[in-house]
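Morning. Coffee machine broken again, so started the prediction first thing and wrote up yesterday's gels while waiting. Chain of 226 residues, entered below exactly as on the submission form.
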Amino acid sequence: MATSASTFELMRSLTLSGLVQEEILRGIKTGELTVGAKLNEIDLAERLGISRSPVREAFRALEEAGLVRLEKNRGVFIRDLSDEEAAELYTVRAGLDEMAGRLLAPRVTPEQLKELKKLVTRLETSSKRGGVNNYFPLNIAFHDRLVEMTGNTTLLGLYRQVVNRMHLLRRRGFSVSGSSAASHAEHRIILDALATRNAEATASAMRQHVESGFKRALAAHHLEEN
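Came back before lunch.
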């Protein structure tokens, strides 16, 4: 069946929109784009060498995903999350991690355990050398890989949607003294539970890690306010 030129143009525009979304998300993950930062449609289009239409589509998609807010006559801004939204996201994330632990433990392979241990070692080394800017992306990768190893693509997709929104606030938790050390210890507990192939112990360890992370994020938020 022949495909019209307008269909090809639509597909190209959607692809470019996805690239813009990834670029903005990268900026949020790395800390280049912080809460309240204004996104400039013209600058993004020029920097990426594309028209402004895909940029506008990306803004709309990111608004639906809860990452930006569009203000009439003012522009597009990186969103802040209310305390209620943060609590809801952590609750959902804890449930997803618990499910991932329960699914992964019985099926995890020795090779996967070795891979995860290497990731944790890199995390620990990175936090000592470069602080949160190095630690944060590696931490994201470690947890994403844990969920990916379950082999459940639906779970992984839902997990990534939640975590993308959590990028708006998760850096807070690492500004509290001792946060990285606490997180390292919790990662090791998860690995130990996985090594036993005990589904309930792993699920509990992963849920506890998320809940402890929420407490650290709250503590950091209170410090910022005082």
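The mean pLDDT is 86. Going to sketch it on the whiteboard this afternoon.
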